[in-house]
Amino acid sequence: MTEISNVARLSEPLKFAYWVPNVSGGLVVSTIEQRTGWDFNYNKKLARIAEESGFEYALTQTRYAASYGADKQHEATSFSLALLAATERLKVISAVHPGMWHPGVLAKFIITADHISNGRAAVNIVSGWLKSEFTNFGLDWLEHDERYVRTEEFIRVLRGLWTETEYSQAGKYYNITDFTLNPAPVQVPGRAHPEIFFGGNSTAAQATAGRVADWYFSNGKDLEGFKDNIAGVVSSAGESGRGTRQGGGGALPAPRFGLNGFVISRDSEKEARETLREIVEKAHKPAVQGFRDAVQEAGPSTRDGKGMWADSTFEDLVQYNDGFKTQLIGTPEQIAERIVEYKKIGVNLFLTGYLHFQEELAAFGRDILPIVRELESDLARSHGTELDLSSTPEAKTPAKEEVAV
Ligand SMILES: Cc1cc2nc3c(=O)[nH]c(=O)nc-3n(C[C@H](O)[C@H](O)[C@H](O)COP(=O)(O)O)c2cc1C
């Protein structure tokens, strides 16, 4: 991918999402103080703060058993639905494992969520790494690349049932015959159906996402790592004839890219670095080590050894989605500059995590987002275009006094 692959993309503002803390223990496996709750009331307030602070999406995690210290977990689809009902504009992406759900049942569930929320439901299809969740439930645990064979069929069923009537699909894992789901999803301009996000880093994951995902989510990466990671997705999308989002070519628009980053914004870079040092120093070592053992089922188990967590150090794993690697750490200005560097290489959306979610997410919207928008405007102008802010959450948020946290 060239530095700036198309000028049109520069007129599109970056989008922002946050991890819903629907599991206990926060986003870092550390005994450092984390003023982050995992219960519904905490999350309801957080979601409302988020939609007032410039966030377009929230992402729930799917977890059935303790891992990385997350001893207690709320189920993702029901939690997402409740958050949709509690908000006005936020889109809520629910993580889902193929293998735990039948795609027809999920398609129906999400249509209902979409109607309840007036077109704001979305899914993140994750192929899984925590083997015991499957085997202790008595479910099949497929070998790594085979999980993606099933995932691809699963996504094709979802899209088929959301966009067609009398839909049929014959495959290795799912067989659908003449099925029509009524009602269909809500018609939203610019959206063909509830958006399909996809998480996975391995070669098989990239190839699958390139063929069928609307959005590819990456774990935290440095700039070079992100370029490497999306190259496989871009090439698979091209091979399968997917067009550009400007409307040319294949049946599906080209995939878009989301990147995870753990945000530590402080008045000085020194303070921010000090906070990172404290998080890592106070890491819950047995939990991080247990997580490290469990994720051997992911990227490290592949034939080419590439994939999620394959090259993660102990320090990286303290944020269990490698969020420190993205280095959104420093002053608001430094973080905003870094964010725009990633935009230049193809990131469309940032998925963010924090130590103290309610306070720091509000601070992100107040202190960092306006600088990002200024830098994005400058970047667009320097390439002969204008940043179009009309569709951003900020533009749609009614003016009101600052949200109290
Ligand atoms: C943004 C993102 C969110 C994810 N959320 C979950 C989740 O909620 N539950 C889960 O079991 N795995 C989740 N995963 C992990 C995937 O299930 C998958 O195991 C992982 O991406 C490893 O894929 P790989 O081995 O193909 O690289 C997520 C991955 C990403 C990138």
TrEMBL record:
- Name its species: Arthrobacter oryzae
UniProt-listed InterPro entries = DMSO2_SphG, Luciferase-like_dom, Luciferase-like_sf, SsuD_RutA_monooxygenase
Q: Which gene encodes it?
A: sfnG
User: What are the alphabetically sorted keywords of the record?
Assistant: Flavoprotein, FMN, Monooxygenase, Oxidoreductase
An example GO biological process term is: alkanesulfonate catabolic process
Key word Oxidoreductase present = yes
Q: What protein does this entry describe? A: Dimethyl sulfone monooxygenase SfnG
Tell me the GO molecular function terms. Answer: alkanesulfonate monooxygenase activity
Renumbered residue ranges of the record's region Disordered: 384-405
UniProt domain Luciferase-like: residue ranges: 16-348
Q: Which Gene3D superfamilies match?
A: Luciferase-like domain
UniProt keyword Glycosyltransferase, yes or no: no
Fetch the Pfam families from UniProt.
Bac_luciferase (PF00296)
